[in-house]
Structures are given as C-alpha cells and as structure tokens.
Amino acid sequence: MLVEGARILDVGALEKFDANKGAERIELPGVTLFPGLIDAHSHLFLHPYNETSWDDQVLKESEAYRTLRAARHAQATLESGFTALRDLGTEGAGTADVALKRAIEDGIIPGPRLFVATRAIVATGSYGPAARNYSGFHPGPDCCLPQGAEEASGIDEIVRAVRRQASLGADWIKLYADYRTGPQGEVRPTFSEAELRAAVEAAHDSGRPVAVHAMVDEAMRRAAVAGVDTIEHGYGGSRETFALMAKTGIAFLPTLTAPEAIAEYFHAHDDSREPTENMAMAAKAFQFARDEGVIIGCGSDVGVFAHGTSRRELAWMVRLGMRAVDALEAATAVNAKILRQESELGRIRAGFRADLVGSRRDPTRDIAALSDICFVMKDGVIVSDTESGRRP
Ligand SMILES: [Zn+2]
Predict the structure, then answer these.
(1) How far is Cα 267 from Cα 284, in angstroms, rounded to an integer?
(2) 368 in a domain, yes or no?
(3) Helix (H, G, I), strand (E, B), or coil: what is residue 42?
(4) Which residues have their alpha-adjacent CB atom under 5 A from ion ligand 1?
C-alpha cells in the first residue's frame, strides 16, 4: 500500500511500487491490517456510571472538566483502533463536542475524526436529571436544573432547536423519541409523529441526517414513519417495525454492550449469569433486525462503559451470531455509509483516507484480536506502532 499525505494512493503487490523506492517503508510482518474502526454511537463526554452516576456527571462536573476528560477519552479511543466516532450528544456539556472535534482536526490533541450532535433534543420534561428526584425543586423562569439535552415541545420549538444546533456545529441531529416518563417510570413515546416529521424536515433541509434514540416499538415506528436516518437501541422493536426500517433504508445501531455494562454496575452481572431482561431484549432486537434485513451498523453507546473498549460491541455482535467479518464490516464500510463517508472511510482502497489499523492476530478469525492492536494510522499519520520497529 502506498500512502501519500492523508490518503491511500494505491494498493497492490510490492513490485507495483518499484517507482516509489524513495518512499519510507513500514513493514508489519504477521500483522493483519484493516480499515480504521468506526463506532457510530459514542458519548465522549460521559464516563462509566459506576465511577460517577449519570445525574452527578451532568450536575456536578463542569463543562470544562468534562471537556478535559473527553480529550483523554478521545486519545484512548484512537489508540484502540477506532479512528472515527459519531458522538451522539454531550449529555449536558453544551456544544463542547464541536470544540473537541476542532481541536482534533487542528492537531492540538490526538483523537478520532468526529461527527457530532451537540446537545441532542428531547421533549419537555422527558429527560434527566428528572426534577421529581430533587427535593424542593420547582422548575420556573428563575431556576433551572441543568439538563442532559435541549428541551422542545411543539413544531415551532423543535424546528428552532434543530436549526439552533445545526448553526452551532452539529453534523447530525439527535432526537429522543421516548424516555422513562410513564407514571411508574416505564418508557413511553415522547415526541408526536408530527413533531418528529417537522424535526426531520428541518434537519434534512439543512443537509443533516437524523439519529433517533428509541427503546419502545411505538417510538421506533413513529421515527421510521417520520423518515429518520438511524434508530439507536431499539430493544423493544417488533418484527414489523424492523421490516419497515429495512424497507425504508433506516439503519439500526444495536448498542448491545450498554445493557451488559449497566447490569455489571448495578446488578452484579458477570458472564456466568443469565442475561438480564434488557440484555435479552437487546439480543432479540438484534435478531429481528438481522432476520428482516435491516442495515446494521456498529454503535456501542461507549461512555456508559470505558472509552477505548468499543471493541466489546463487535464481540457482542459475534456472540449473538454474526460472522466476525460481518461485524468488522459493520464497524467499517457499513458505518462509513451510514455517515455518508462511503467514498472516504471504511475501506482500504486507492483514494480513501489512510485510516489503518493493525492487529497481531486476524480479527476475521477471532474478533478478540481487536484487543491486540499494534498499529494505528489516521490520515496517513502514525498514531501508534509497536510492531515495525520504527519510531512513530
Ligand atoms: Zn447513547
């Protein structure tokens, strides 16, 4: 492979490059090289909830503190072989993701290329921290409880929120179509179909795709009918709704690792135990999506669990029946297509970005090889190299 600047110039047998004898040569014997991995559902501004609860991160950690942490998270992510992320909401850290993305692009800090969503948009009173959990708190004009996303109700407000986030630097618009708003804390749809449609129209008019968090079937159905681009989680999705997604080309990001991480933190879950109800639901949704032929990308919800371990999501996909090579494709070529980067990222091909990752073992044979990353290049620049004997 010949790399010039940030791009792959050519790929082929060694003789093909006889004319380029002056080029610096990097040999990686025994290493399997593959395109840089992409996690299409991350939260760089969160860290695991067993360290600090989600509420406490939003309420007690300043935006500046969270941004400094996010920089470290970005570095750990890149070094683990993930060269691009779609980061779906700062969860209370404002539009700091836009600044983080810029600092990475400007070469000030190391990190993956980012596609960001800024604050995300939720229906009024339909996210956290929940006012009911804070004694003596009465929402009003003079007092506000910091929120993990931007609230909106009605067509005018949701359209305004979409346009505002777009103007502040969002690459994607992230909407929450449901949340734990039921009287017993059960998950209920939040935005109406009309609100979702209006948001999608405003986002698409601005050239931005829409990602929707949806857990219950009705919220997924509304999102699908409204013409969104991706649906996240989907644990309660019916076969019919996944069939509708397949028909309309809406991609699914299954976030299989998140329920496992939550179970580990709060229900003492480990591999020797039966999957929890949420884990079982996530597994069933994944199966439905595969049966119905939905486009399945790789999105882990990392941030709920430790940054730098997004590979857990690929391991789950394989554990639930996908071939390793298909999980790798989901995290490279499929995710690149979802991100509208199919002519830039996700393949080792002439003209593509030189985002390359090497493992000492072959991950198409054993997905666990992703824990053995020995070479990372992003945009033609070597980030880490423990194998060729060359100094990065
Ligand atoms: Zn998420």
Answers:
(1) 21
(2) no
(3) strand
(4) 301
pTM above 0.90, yes or no: yes
Between 138 and 46, the higher pLDDT residue? 46
Give residue-wise pLDDT tens across range 163-222.
999 999 999 999 999 999 999 999 999 999 999 999 999 999 999 999 999 999 999 999
Please state the domain count of the chain: 1
How many A from CA of 43 to the centre of ligand 1? 6
Ligand 1 centre distance from Cα of residue 13 (Å): 42
Q: Are 173 and 227 in contact (CB under 8 A)?
A: no
User: What CATH number is associated with residue 255?
Assistant: 3.20.20.140
Q: How confident is the model over 71-126, as pLDDT tens digits?
A: 999 999 999 999 999 999 999 999 999 999 999 999 999 999 999 999 999 999 99
State the amino acid at position 225 in one-letter form.
V
Distance from residue 88's CA to the centre of ligand 1 (Å): 6
Residues of the chain with pLDDT > 90, as a percent, come to 91
- Alpha-carbon distance of 346 to 335, in angstroms, equals 7
Residue 28 lies in a domain: no
Range of the domain at 121: 34-130+147-355
8 A C-beta contact, residue 150 and residue 190: no
Closest CA to 37 of 279, 257, 335: 335
- Residue 124 CA to residue 387 CA, distance in Å, equals 52
388 CA → ligand 1 middle, Å: 37
The amino acid at 333: A
Residue 57 Cα to ligand 1 midpoint, Å, equals: 15
| Distance in Å, CA 202 to ligand 1 centroid | 22
- Which DSSP symbol is given to 368? G
Whether residue 152 contacts residue 122, with contact meaning beta carbons closer than 8 Å, is answered with yes
E-assigned strand segments in 118-191: 121-123, 150-152, 173-176, 178-179, 188-189
State the DSSP H helix or E strand holding residue 231, giving kind and residue range, or none if neither. Answer: strand 230-236
186 part of a folded domain: yes
Domain-located, residue 363: no
Nearest-angstrom CA–CA distance, 100 and 68? 9
